[in-house]
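Researcher: Good morning. I'm working through a list of sequences from a screen, and I'd like to move beyond sequence-only analysis. For each chain I'm collecting a predicted structure so we can compare shapes side by side. This is the next one on the list. No need for commentary yet; just the structure.
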Amino acid sequence: MIRKLIGSLVLLGCIAFLDPIFAQDKVVDQIVCVVGKNIILKSDIEGTFQQQQAQGITTEGDMKCEILENLLVEKLLLAEAELDTTIIVSDSQINQNLEQRIQYFITHLGSEKEVEAYFKKSIVQLKADLQEVIKNQQMTQQMQEKIVDKVTVSPAEVRLHFKSLPEAEIPQIDAQIEYAQITVLPAITQEEEDRIKATLRELKHRIETGESGFAPLAVIYSEDGSARNGGELDYMGRGNLDPAYAAAAFNLKGDKISNVVKSDFGYHIIQVMDRKGEQIKTRHIIMKPKVAPEAMKKAFLQIDSIANFIRKGTFKFEDAAVRYSFDKNSRNNGGAVINPETSESKWKMSELDPDVSKVIAKMNINEISKPFLTVDDKQRQIYKIVKLLSKTDAHQANLRDDYVELSNKYLASKKEKTLDKWIREKQAGTYVHIDPSYMNCNFKYKGWVK
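Model: Good morning. Structure tokens for this chain:
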């Protein structure tokens, strides 16, 4: 339980920051706890409490006491992390998380101006206020991960644990499905590619001749979320970037602007703003080719023909996926789609893309769907057909069908017990002071009150 609650503290911190309590500078506040050299303010508790009430979250115990204990655990982890020289949070990690938070606020509130109006401060000031919060959260997460890093489970342990479970404690497994897909990406005409390349070359020329700056042109022309920030992206390594984008960006010298680069996301011109070791901060202008109606129709007819040939038995779905599908991730699996969260082929209906979910829900096993229009992971329009490979109703877990899920649950349980033991041991050797107004809380970990 504590492990899950600690994990949610990052989200709660983000949500709580949206509360009007946090939108204004604190004039008067009260320190209610000290853990090591870290403090917990009354406003930390009250802000989270108000958010939980607004979300309809209830508890059988005293909610404020439970919030306080979660914060105490977080501060205990932070106190230990500050003593651990192997736990390092880089500026690039903070900046990346910071940008994600700001984007969350913009999405939640509508625009940068509305964010600034809500918090009564500029984006620059808001970022400054959030930096320490984010650093502490990342240190806490690293410390928690280090504590449980070496915890593992063997197949024999999983079997023994499962067989020892009382009937009432055997978990229920949600309904799950396995499916395969074939996708067809509508073709882009040469004329459209040439149009975009010519536009980007012209923009590059305008920047290089001083006619305009990079950022203003990115705001006007770039076709992704970075446009509002003048095309700026955060520090990233090669592995976090599209291969073609990375190859061009890492080869740029000084403040030079790249030639037009084609990636899976579109066409770019790129400029490197800063370098830190193996990470670079870039800005770009991206333009995405428009698909002509004729190409959309041709793609539909192509995938519809593939589906009909499979239904007639002309060739198997698996062979057609390898030969015709545009999706690199599923193509070599015979079209079978792997759940990235579990690395398994099983999916809960709630985990599926909505476009896939509404089609799969009406299908029978081994049925081939009609073609439907959706978008891929690069936000490109594609036509897709899917085949339902298997469907398992909700049921009580068993080792034969649910070993992976049972193994994951047991591993999580072992990690929670390891963390639980660590907390109890560290309480004894860490300075903790709790304000008398919270001394009557019925804490899970009794060592807080000394």
